[in-house]
UniProtKB/TrEMBL annotation:
Family: Belongs to the radical SAM superfamily. Biotin synthase family.
Top-level taxon of origin: Bacteria
Protein's UniProt keywords contain Cell membrane: no
Required cofactor names: [2Fe-2S] cluster; [4Fe-4S] cluster
Source organism: Prauserella sediminis
Enzyme Commission (EC) number: 2.8.1.6
Residues the record lists as binding [2Fe-2S] cluster: C110, C143, C203, R273
Residue ranges of every copy of the Radical SAM core domain listed in the record: 51-275
Reactions listed under catalytic activity: (4R,5S)-dethiobiotin + (sulfur carrier)-SH + 2 reduced [2Fe-2S]-[ferredoxin] + 2 S-adenosyl-L-methionine = (sulfur carrier)-H + biotin + 2 5'-deoxyadenosine + 2 L-methionine + 2 oxidized [2Fe-2S]-[ferredoxin]
Subunit structure: Homodimer.
Protein name according to UniProt: Biotin synthase
Length: 357
């Protein structure tokens, strides 16, 4: 059985894409086979990304107050999650937040705003921020995540220096109407395609643990391959109190590693990013997951706290990986927090308290 995944990796490296059946076999591998899955997926990871880890840093420009009803989201219409809510950060605050992430080792800053999509004024605001950020940090990669794009907005963002645009498909087309009713799967795909057509690197991923079947997870991964998404954030549902999923716990650490491995087999040369829910769901398997995925977010998420940024950097170093684009000395080991319910972010953007970076 252990040879099966190695043979699959051989075939993929020789140019034969993984089939949906291959991806299903990875998801359904026995836990006793987990390290065989990781070893085979790890060959693909190293073939395309060596031992590097791309570190991204999130800045939540606008938090909560969203009119959309995505049922997994703490910022959605109808969510009672006691998160920070604020309207747009100033340019100065945005630059200060981004600088903290860059000092912590991030090479990409993700500027995120809640909402259905940006107005013309919103796009002007973000382009101004991006131009200032790029003039201060010429090497930084900037990813914008502002919701559904109207015609012409991707081109404006591109002209300002935006490198990537994130808009997750989140789940399979066949499951999409179960998680949100205020926009469609096709709306989301349209925005990813608009970004790509404007010459911006598309970033689109998924959320696992939303009640989807194995087949639907595979359907979403194959759709991401067809969309040619350059980077694929894999989120694990964080069941925020006050949202419809507050009691949804479908994931185990081993299951999360298999999901990341399935993403790697289906999209071997794409940036597979461990995203929200990493600490909560992978728990002690976080370092194992780094042998499959090649990217993560440093520190905090949009509305929840991540583990200490030092612990992230220690994990990268301790496991023989290096932060992409950074040769700085890595911080000393910090204590690992206990797995717990999502801790609402009370520091960083939108507060007077220093960010976690
Ligand atoms: S559009 Fe974005 S911010 Fe708004 S509810 Fe959906 S995921 Fe949350």
């Amino acid at each position: 059985m252990s040879d099966t995944f190695q043979q699959l990796a051989d075939a993929i490296l020789a140019g034969t894409p993984a089939t949906p059946e291959d991806a299903l076999a990875v998801l359904r591998a026995d836990d006793a086979e987990l390290m065989h899955v990781v070893a085979a997926a790890g060959r693909l990871r190293r073939a395309y990304f060596g031992n590097t880890v791309k570190v991204n840093y999130l800045v939540n420009l606008k938090s909560g107050l969203c009119p959309e009803n995505c049922n997994y989201c703490s910022q959605a219409l109808g969510s009672d999650a006691p998160i920070l809510k604020y309207s747009w950060l100033s340019k100065e605050d945005t630059l200060a937040q981004a600088s903290a992430g860059l000092r912590g080792g991030a090479s990409r800053v993700c500027l995120v705003a809640s909402g259905r999509g940006p107005s013309t004024r919103d796009v002007d605001k973000v382009t101004d921020m991006v131009e200032s950020l790029k003039s201060e940090y010429p090497d930084v990669e900037v990813c914008a995540c502002l919701g559904l794009l109207a015609d012409g907005q991707a081109e404006q963002l591109k002209a300002a220096g935006v490198d990537a645009y994130n808009h997750n498909i989140n789940t399979a087309k066949s499951n999409h109407a179960n998680i949100v009713q205020t926009h469609t799967y096709d709306d989301r795909v349209d925005t990813v395609q608009k970004a790509k057509s404007a010459g911006i690197s598309p970033c689109s991923g998924l959320i696992a643990g939303l009640g989807e079947s194995d087949e639907q997870l595979v359907e979403a991964l194959v759709a991401l391959r067809e969309l040619d998404s350059d980077s694929i954030p894999v989120n694990f549902l964080m069941p925020f109190e006050g949202t419809p999923h507050e009691n949804t716990w479908e994931l185990s650490p081993a299951r999360c590693v298999k999901i990341l491995a399935a993403a790697r087999f289906v999209c071997p040369d794409k940036e597979v990013r461990i995203a929200g829910g990493r600490e909560m769901h992978l728990r002690s398997l976080q370092p194992i997951a780094l042998h499959v995925a090649n990217s993560l977010f440093l520190g905090d998420y949009l509305t929840s706290e991540g583990q200490d940024a030092r612990a992230d950097l220690d994990m990268i170093r301790d496991n023989g990986f290096v932060v992409l684009g950074s040769e700085q000395d890595l911080a000393e080991r910090a204590a690992q927090p206990e797995p717990a319910d999502p801790a609402i972010r009370r520091r960083g953007a939108g507060t007077d308290v220093l960010p976690n970076a």
